[in-house]
Write a structure and sequence with these properties.
The complex is a heterodimer of chains A (about 120) and B (about 525).
Chain A lengths: L4 H19 L3 H23 L22 H32 L13
Helix pairs in contact in A: 1-2, 2-3
Chain B lengths: L6 H19 L3 H30 L2 E5 L18 E5 L1 H24 L6 H20 L3 H19 L6 H32 L4 H7 L4 H17 L8 H8 L2 H25 L8 H22 L4 H25 L4 H40 L15 H15 L5 H16 L1 H26 L15 H19 L1 H17 L1 H15 L3
Antiparallel strand pairs in B: 1-2
Helix pairs in contact in B: 1-2, 1-4, 2-3, 3-4, 3-10, 3-13, 3-17, 3-18, 4-5, 4-10, 5-6, 5-10, 6-8, 6-9, 7-19, 8-10, 9-10, 9-12, 10-13, 11-12, 11-16, 12-13, 12-15, 12-16, 13-14, 13-15, 13-17, 13-18, 14-16, 14-17, 15-16
Classes of the chains: A mainly alpha (about 120), B mainly alpha (about 525).
């Protein structure tokens, strides 16, 4: 049971981010919610690769260290996902900035020239 | 070693190289940059064509990135492929070919279309990045790379949708598209993680081989389905589509259509290749069919009432995606049952596959024609247009070809694929065929509306000085018009050589999986 605790936390984080995306009205807060979703996803993958008591997954010629390691693939995946997340967040924030310049507001109710 | 073995890698390398060199070519002036834009687009189209020919002749092509050998799919001592694999079967090759043609047409069109604006070298770079991502999604044999390429094409297309950032609407559309797209990508990643947690592989063929039917797999399937249906613009998450398609520069929209088809490709790859053996229960196929019917109907009924040319055509995209979902859903329904497959399932799949290529060609042409109207008149509003047939005769002819094709008038290609879908969905339930036909009638109605308001009627004084659009725009549209005409005039040839191998590859789960493991056996001799 206690072993599943991290998954519970990650799940709650994901749902919190999702709720923020759907219900927040401020574009900045929407961007934050998106980052929360990204962080939850990354944490989820890292958690999947964790083995209790495992060491870093590096083999050296010198030997030593524990033979029990955490899984390396999820870490490689997460690293890629973090970089992509960074790019998306940066682009999203610059969109928010430019939308503010055009509309003079960050409220989604004001940013709706496109409809129908 | 045959250089053609490296076609899958070249397909990604050429547009990527083109993207990073594009800002440099602008040092040589406008001419060099435009030449680079066209040259790289032509090269990747040629590569796509060669790849399609090769896959048609020799079966699925495997390519390993970063291994000791390009075909060493399984390192010695391991029973699962852990390499970065590209796998191109007939369906992938088909998708790559049609995406390349759409991207080429968009590129040729953009040369003159974008010349009034500054920063076009960035436009070119983003355009090629988007194309790289799109090709990557279509040829990768690995789920994590699928996610990476999905994000490459998405991030590049956010930038392109917002390219006219002096318009608030473009930014608003890009932001909306970005939220839907990023959330979708995250859901794909979570689904990949679920499958990885269970099987320790992210390779598609290896997953398809070992997968079982349990709670984790069901969750992953639902996540994939939701995310990719969102990305390809099915109802109820279609609202980003009209905004993004209408606000992006026309050449980009033409390529964006191909990008959304790449998401559709991902959806079918997941359903057919990975989960193919569990589709005995009708639940998932019916979900896809219902999504398809809803998209068809809601999309077209929203389209009829639009006043802006771009938005009207974009709402039709929603309804056309519905046709494909309907065709593939019916095919999926018949997947477990050999008799139903022979009876109507394969016809439905052929209809769906044929509709993908038809849709990409005529919808691309329609958006380019809408872009040409905007370029010539400076207006997007149908109520302000009229009598343009006098000033834009060539654009009118090209628009007419596309409109006839999308409305499904015989002998155009839209008629053939729609007929295949009607026939097969009728066998499942008549009401599906009724919905499809009503949608087709409404489609015709709305294109008659555009044609009549924009091109016919008395000459308007303010459009007296409007001149025919420049050569490159006409050339871009002509590429797609030629493709439509070939598909229309030789339907038997296109069905036998283009569509049927792709549909067969989709059904044949074993050959996709077998190709990787066979490559492991032959590649081991290095």
């Amino acid at each position: 049971m206690i072993g599943n605790f991290p998954y519970l936390v990650v799940g709650i984080l994901f749902v919190m981010g999702f709720i923020g995306l759907v219900f927040e009205r401020n574009l900045m807060k929407i961007a934050i919610a998106m980052s929360v979703v990204e962080a939850a996803t990354n944490l989820f993958i890292i958690t999947l690769g964790y083995r209790s008591g495992g060491s870093i997954p590096v083999w050296t010629m010198a030997g030593g260290g524990s033979s029990r390691m955490v899984l390396p693939t999820p870490q490689a995946l997460t690293l890629t996902a973090i970089v992509i997340g960074l790019a998306t967040t940066a682009l999203m924030l610059s969109f928010v900035m430019m939308i503010y310049r055009h509309y003079g507001s960050l409220d989604v109710r004001d940013v709706r020239r496109l409809r129908g | 070693m045959n250089w053609q073995d490296h076609l899958p890698a070249l397909l990604l390398a050429v547009p990527l190289f083109g993207a990073f060199l594009a800002p440099l070519t602008t040092l040589g002036g406008k001419g060099l940059r435009n030449a680079w834009f066209i040259f790289v687009s032509s090269v990747f189209t040629l590569i796509a064509f060669l790849l399609w020919v090769r896959v048609g002749a020799t079966g699925p092509a495997i390519y390993v990135m970063g291994g000791q050998g390009w075909n060493l799919a399984l390192p010695s001592g391991l029973s699962i492929p852990v390499r970065i694999l590209m796998e191109v079967d007939a369906f992938s090759a088909f998708m790559v070919l049609l995406s390349a043609v759409a991207a080429l047409a968009g590129a040729i069109f953009s040369v003159n279309y974008m010349e009034r604006f500054s920063g076009v070298e960035k436009f070119v770079a983003l355009y090629f990045l988007m194309v790289t991502g799109m090709f990557g999604m279509e040829i990768t044999g690995d789920f994590f790379n699928f996610f990476v390429f999905l994000e490459i094409s998405s991030v590049a297309s956010f930038g392109l949708v917002a390219f006219w950032r002096d318009r608030g609407e473009a930014l608003e559309a890009a932001f909306k598209y970005m939220l839907v797209s990023t959330l979708g990508a995250m859901m794909v990643l979570v689904a990949v993680a679920f499958l990885y947690s269970r099987y320790n592989v992210v390779n598609m063929a290896a997953l398809g081989k070992v997968i079982e039917w349990g709670m984790v797999e069901k969750t992953a399937l639902v996540l994939f389905l939701t995310a990719l249906a969102m990305k390809c613009g099915a109802v109820p998450m279609h609202m980003w589509m009209p905004d993004a398609y209408a606000e992006a520069p026309a050449g980009v929209t033409c390529a964006l259509i191909a990008v959304s088809q790449a998401s559709l490709y991902g959806l079918f790859r997941v359903c057919f290749t990975i989960y193919g053996s569990f589709m005995g229960s009708p639940m998932i196929p019916w979900v896809i069919i219902v999504l398809g019917v809803l998209s068809m109907f809601i999309g077209v009924s929203m389209a009829v009432i639009q006043k802006e040319v771009g938005r009207l055509i974009a709402y039709h995209s929603v309804s056309q995606v519905g046709y494909m979902l309907l065709g593939f859903g019916v095919g999926l329904l018949a997947l477990g049952d050999a008799r139903a497959m022979a009876d109507y399932g394969f016809t439905a799949l052929k209809g769906g596959v044929f509709h993908i290529v038809n849709y990409t060609m005529y919808k691309g042409l329609l958006f380019l024609a809408a872009g040409a109207l905007y370029y010539a008149t400076g207006s997007r509003n149908l109520n302000e247009m009229g009598g343009l047939a006098r000033q834009l005769p060539k654009t009118m002819v090209l628009f007419m070809i596309a409109a006839a094709a999308i409305a499904g008038l015989p002998p155009f290609n839209g008629f053939v694929s729609k007929l295949l879908i009607y026939e097969s969905s009728f066998a499942v339930h008549p009401i599906l065929a009724v919905f499809a036909m009503v949608t087709s009638v409404l489609t015709l109605a709305s294109f008659v509306k555009i044609f009549q308001t924009a091109f016919l009627g008395p000459e308007l004084k303010k459009f007296k000085d409007v001149r025919e659009v420049p050569g490159s725009m006409l050339a871009g549209m002509t590429v797609l018009a030629c493709a439509i005409l070939v598909l229309s005039l030789f339907p038997t040839w296109s069905l036998n050589h283009l569509v049927e191998p792709a549909a067969k590859a989709l059904v044949d789960q074993a050959s996709y999986i077998g190709a990787v493991f066979a490559a492991a056996a032959t590649g081991g001799g290095l």
